[in-house]
């Protein structure tokens, strides 16, 4: 059995987005992709994989002058 890598998943997702653009148009596809990305981050947050405090600390370190 073949294990799927990120390249495989990326190719499948790219093909589906291209097919979706051809089928329903670019405006609706952009909305679907945007909602999918937001849903992904909400799911990560609900699973506990997305730590807002860690993100805040990273942004604060990046904004400090050197």
Properties at a glance:
extended, mainly alpha, 3 helices, single chain
Distance between the termini: 51 Å
- C-alpha geometry: extended
**Integer tally of domains:** 1
Enumerate the spans where pLDDT stays under 50 for 5 or more consecutive residues.
Answer: none
What is the mean pLDDT? Answer: 85
Number of helices: 3
SS-based class: mainly alpha
Along the chain, the helix and strand elements come as: HHH
**Major sheet:** none
Q: How many β-strand runs?
A: 0
State the share of residues found in helices, binned by percent.
over 70%
**If you compute it from the alpha carbons, what radius of gyration comes out, rounded to the nearest whole angstrom?**
17 Å
Q: How much beta, percentage-wise?
A: under 5%
Describe what is shown at a glance.
This protein is mainly α. Helices cover 80% and strands 0% of the residues.
Overall description:
This protein has 66 residues and is an all-alpha fold. It has one domain. Helices cover 80% and strands 0% of the residues. It is built from three helices and no strands. It has helices spanning 6-24, 26-47, 52-63. The longest helix has 22 residues, at 26-47. It is extended and about 45 Å long. It starts with 5 loop residues before the first helix and ends with a helix. The model has no long low-confidence stretch (mean pLDDT 85).
């Amino acid at each position: 059995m073949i294990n799927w890598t990120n390249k495989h998943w990326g190719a499948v997702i790219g093909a589906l987005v291209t097919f979706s653009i051809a089928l329903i148009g670019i405006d609706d596809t952009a909305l679907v992709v945007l909602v999918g990305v937001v849903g992904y981050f909400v799911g990560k947050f609900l699973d506990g994989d997305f730590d807002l405090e860690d993100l805040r600390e990273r942004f604060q370190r990046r904004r400090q002058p050197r």
